[in-house]
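User: quick one, sequence for these tokens?
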């Protein structure tokens, strides 16, 4: 930590951030508190949206649509007032992760796990979020990356508990993705298959072909496509960390690492593994395409966008 005041950590795409970090005490402490308060509205709205989305998985109600609408409008106003940027100080990052821990404990996010196993998963994620929050405040240059490592471990442990706790979730997405991987292994056409499971008779693979191809290794190597979804989720988070390139100072690196960790622990991210939802594939490919464009690797960007 430096002894002089400096701007808050910022991670606009493709740009570094000031090399100095926020002072904890001294003449800049009051300014830092102001910067922290200014940084919180947008991310807190994001967390509220994630909490609402997670709750809607378990109990869907029409009023949730109204909540989504209000949060979307408020977030748009917040971004407009900030010029499209969210400036994260280490304290703001710590607050976000601590709030995430509270939401993880308070909001049920799993449909198919029993109360006991689901509570264990939520506790693992909450502890990881709290530890990651504490690391944001440490006067160590690599503290935020250490917090990201904690988030990765916490997310993977939660994934293992989810997959083993419910090896066959009663949702059509999981059955069709598993069945498509098996069809590819046999050399069959996934679009001609019929699957029967607790959700009913599923006679169509409803995704584009590369979705089956990209997720099949999870089934082939570990018996469940959800393992590949977890790998792609972590990959997407690491790409977000990579947006703070070599030119970014300690402030930019801290903010990018905190955002990547938050992405892994965000309420609802582990729910995607339980439900076998395919959004992690989109996240990894789109984030990778964005990073490739920033680094002027247009062919790679086009490939990732096509996938």
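Assistant:
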């Amino acid at each position: 930590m430096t002894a002089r005041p400096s701007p808050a950590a910022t991670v606009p795409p493709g740009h570094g951030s000031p090399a100095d970090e926020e002072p904890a005490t001294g003449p800049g402490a009051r300014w830092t508190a102001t910067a922290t308060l200014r940084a919180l509205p947008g991310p807190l709205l994001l967390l509220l949206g994630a909490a609402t989305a997670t709750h809607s998985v378990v109990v869907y109600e029409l009023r949730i649509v109204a909540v989504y609408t209000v949060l979307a409008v408020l977030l748009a106003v917040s971004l407009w007032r900030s010029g499209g940027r969210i400036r994260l100080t280490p304290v703001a990052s710590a607050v976000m992760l601590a709030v995430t821990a509270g939401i993880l404990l308070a909001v049920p996010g799993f449909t198919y796990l029993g109360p006991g196993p689901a509570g264990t998963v939520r506790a693992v994620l909450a502890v990881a979020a709290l530890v990651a929050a504490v690391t944001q405040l440490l006067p160590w240059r690599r503290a935020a990356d250490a917090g990201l490592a904690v988030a990765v471990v916490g997310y993977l442990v939660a994934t293992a508990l989810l997959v083993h706790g419910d090896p066959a979730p009663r949702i059509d997405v999981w059955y069709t993705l598993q069945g498509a991987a098996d069809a590819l292994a046999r050399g069959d056409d996934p679009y001609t298959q019929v699957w029967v499971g607790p959700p009913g008779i599923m006679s169509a693979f409803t995704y584009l072909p590369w979705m089956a191809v990209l997720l099949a290794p999870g089934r082939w190597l570990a018996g469940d496509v959800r393992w590949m979804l977890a790998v792609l989720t972590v990959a997407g988070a690491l790409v977000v960390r990579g947006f703070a390139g070599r030119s970014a100072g300690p402030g930019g690196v801290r903010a990018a690492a905190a955002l990547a960790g938050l992405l892994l622990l965000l309420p609802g991210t582990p729910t995607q593994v339980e439900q076998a939802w395919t959004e992690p594939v989109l996240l990894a490919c789109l984030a990778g395409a964005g990073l490739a464009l920033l680094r002027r690797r247009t062919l790679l960007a086009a490939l990732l966008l096509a996938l």
